[in-house]
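S.,

Sequence below, as promised.
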Amino acid sequence: MSETDPRDARSDPAGSPPLLAPGHTFATISDKIGSIVLARGTRFGWLIGFAVSFALLMLFLVAVGVVLARGIGVWGNNIPVGWGFDIINFVWWIGIGHAGTLISAILLLLRQTWRNSINRFAEAMTLFAVACAGMFPLLHMGRPWFAYWMGPYPSTMGIWPNFRSPLVWDVFAVSTYATVSALFWFVGLIPDLATLRDRSKKRAARILYGMLAMGWRGSAMHWHRYEVASLLLAGLATPLVVSVHTVVSFDFAIAIVPGWHATIFPPYFVAGAIYAGFAMVLLIAIPLRAVYGLQDFITLAHLRNMAKVLLATSMIVCYGYAIEAFFSWYSGNPNERFMMLNRMTGPYAWTYWTLLACNLVTPQLLWFSKVRDSIASLFGISLVVSLGMWLERFVIIVVSLSRDFLPSSWGMYYPTRWDFATFFGTIGLFLTLLFLFIRFLPMISIFEMRAILPEAEVEDHAAR
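The prediction came back faster than expected:
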């Protein structure tokens, strides 16, 4: 089959938009995606975006320096709200990473080809979000240089971690998640790194991409080993999607604080994580396709599918809200009933009602096909959902801790400028890593996009 013989790409059933715009061949796909990385000049817009992100990253370094020099007393944490922005942001960032693993692992095992256009930058998003999340528990410890005490290292002091502590569970869950996600991401990059090696005109780039490609030549044996490694890693990553945020939810669920001690938390947290993660994938995908002209690869079909996932997970999250409210009444526990009343009418009531407006009301617009087909609406809804999921963590943590069993111990929580600086600084860290990734690595999988072409299907049948 000639590479210059353009054909319509595969499309979804029932007349849905195609997953790849018609007219593309193996060569045009490689040219379009590879040229973003191998271009000589750097786009002015990229430089502006990177400069803003880098400035936020510097803000983060300043905030971390202040925290290390003066201690976490510069934050708004107090008694009774011992967990504030630090743990809110930790849970929020970890949740964002889940969509990447879901897209890369679970959709791979389910043979969903619509993932091919978005899995690469979604996996990168996972890694960068986990890096941001890891900063908060480290800083929250107060003395992060002793973080290794949380691991089961051969201590000469005879001190072992308390394995009944959920903080130790976090260490194992998050480190395992980060390791498997990084391996999955790198293995998926190898064929594309070889493509960049072969197409690069600069010697330094050829050497660098050649080293990273690890001798890939595209032989049958290489592809066989690649398939086996991908499926093994997908099999490892799939339970991690469920387990990691389940473990994070145990941080709260095993406590007796009203509003935390709930069996609904594990599935509720996992659905919320996927919900927040898909919102972030849309927030990244929509500007990327517009700025780099990738409408042929990230089509309306992808945006529609992500909108449907967003709607489905929003319904699961809303079911969790309803169950929380129901059991606070049905349990007959006066503390649980007061907790829900406090959320609705207490001093932080605005956060509870705002989160319901963001996570419960706004996503219902996605039932309408006109909204799902409107790129501006999808971007706006994704922004609202991201805000709503952050507020959900604020309500769970701060509202529950500020008014617990003893009225004499009640207190308000007010974040300081260093809380905000640390939070916005991690957004700078995330965006800086994302801009570097876009510039130096293919943001869309080249070889997986080629697999969508009808030519690839013909060659596959011939090979059998």
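Confidence is low (pLDDT under 50) at residues 1-9.

Coffee later?
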